[in-house]
Amino acid sequence: MAMSFDELIRSIVGVPILLALFGCFARCYHKILKRGYYWYWGALVGWPVSLVAGFSIAFVAADSTVADDKFMLIGSVASCVIASFLPALFPVRTKRRAGQRRRLWKLAQNVAFGVAAICGTGCILRGALHPDDRKGTGLFAEGTLLALLFAWVIGTRAKWGRNLEDELDKDARPPVLYLREFGDEPRPFVIEGIRHPPHPALAAIPGMLTTSNLRFEDYLTEAIESSLGPLIALGNPDDYFAPRGAAREYVGDTDWRGRFQQLAARAQVILLSPGSSDPLRWELDQILRSGIVTKLFVVLGPFTFHCAPHDSPWTAAAGRWIERFTGISKAYKPLDWERFRNSMAEIGYQVLNEPPIPPTIITFDSHARSIVLNGTFRTPEEYVRAIQARRVL
Predict the structure, then answer these.
(1) Same domain? 87 vs 116
(2) Collapsing DSSP states into helix, strand and coil, what is residue 271?
(3) How many domains are there within the chain?
(4) Is 362 helix (H, G, I), strand (E, B) or coil?
(5) Residue-wise pLDDT tens for the chain (393 aa)?
(6) What distance, in Å, lies between the first and last C-alpha atoms of the chain?
(7) Which of 114, 136, 159 is where one domain is finished?
(8) Between vectors from CA 201 to CA 195 and to CA 202, what angle results, nearest 5°?
(9) Range of 103's domain?
(10) Do both 183 and 103 map to the same domain?
């Protein structure tokens, strides 16, 4: 039996409805985890409560004359809204999350494969037992595809991160320790295709510059590891996927200070992306107290004190909407040199009063006095060669 035009339209519309449900549930799950709860609270509370409450609302609002497709639409929309706002009911917990991430995401991937298998089996049985019911078979098929897509995304994303101990076991060279404020990890280090910050008049023209932002780790990891040693870092406790770049270790609140001291003592070089958060200040103070201040290098990219080129109005509006919806902000804020200099001075470092002209590298002598390294720093290799030459002295 051929599918009518009306049925075809409803089948096509069903795909974005399912994607909206998937997106809202993912946001709910992510937000609950961000508030400091373990993964099972997000899985057991976020999704089932949203679904049950949403379709309960649809059941109460609907009567017997409402068609099944409208009932599904009302229930789906209500579930999306509830999933979006449900995390606000969870009070924020300050517990630092650590470890078990690989097992968590492997479990989530296995669940997704299980859902895909169930939906695939349902699709085959529905098609065999009810060959005329194209709608029911299509829903099972869509569920199968979405579950497989979810499993593939999890598997691909989980492979980005590297484990610190694994990298140290594979590479016998002393590591390079990377320090930064966790909130500054998305900060652009360079903008691909642009060597220096553009003139403000050019940057203000929407769509004038089509570029790609590269973070510190995106830009320098390969050059550092080919010439110096494995790039390592302590991980952000908010991570449930380790980012690309440095190999990370996730340590709990009671252990991270001791672990940092071990890694700093073992490192041949300590690279700093400027910041003034309390944990970063403590780390810099420990470096000074331990007498290893000559290992420290402050690396400044060409856009450290400038804003990146403007996106088009449509892109900027979409970005703001995504940030509000997901709670993940990628806003780029230029470095406040005065604040950084004052923070360093309070610890005991002597940093330049005036901000240097980036790109550049600043290191320190044994008395914590700053030294600006010379160089053009047009490639990642030039940054690494300057650091390597200073370490040899």
Answers:
(1) no
(2) strand
(3) 3
(4) strand
(5) 455 545 555 566 666 777 777 778 877 877 787 777 776 677 778 778 888 888 888 777 766 455 566 777 778 888 888 888 888 888 877 554 444 555 666 777 788 888 888 888 888 887 778 777 776 777 778 778 878 887 887 777 777 778 888 899 999 999 999 999 987 887 888 876 554 444 444 444 444 444 567 889 999 999 999 999 999 999 887 776 778 889 998 887 778 899 999 999 999 999 999 988 899 999 999 999 999 999 999 999 988 876 555 455 666 566 656 555 554 555 566 788 999 999 999 999 999 999 898 899 999 999 999 999 988 898 999 999 999 999 865
(6) 82
(7) 159
(8) 45
(9) 99-159
(10) no
Do residues 216 and 341 both lie within one domain?
Answer: yes
Note the maximum CA span of the chain. Answer: 85
168 and 149 fall within a common domain = no
Query: Are 247 and 162 contacting, i.e. CB atoms less than 8 angstroms apart?
Result: yes
Closest CA to 363 of 228, 262, 272, 260: 272
* Rounded Cα–Cα distance for residues 67 and 51 (Å): 19
137 and 61 in a single domain? The answer is: no
Cα-based distances in Å from 171 to 4, 228, 245, 277: 63, 11, 16, 31
Identify the domain boundary among 112, 142, 159: 159
Contacts of 219 (CB under 8 A, 6+ apart): 189, 190, 301, 380
Assess contact for 190 and 223: CB atoms under 8 A: no
Paired tokens of 286: 């420990």
- Residues 202 and 276 placed together within one structural domain of the fold: yes
Residues 6+ apart with CB under 8 A from 276: 181, 339, 340, 343
Q: Is 77 left (phi over 0), alpha (psi -120 to 50) or beta?
A: alpha
Q: Are residues 236 and 307 in the same domain?
A: yes
Do 319 and 233 have their domain in common?
yes
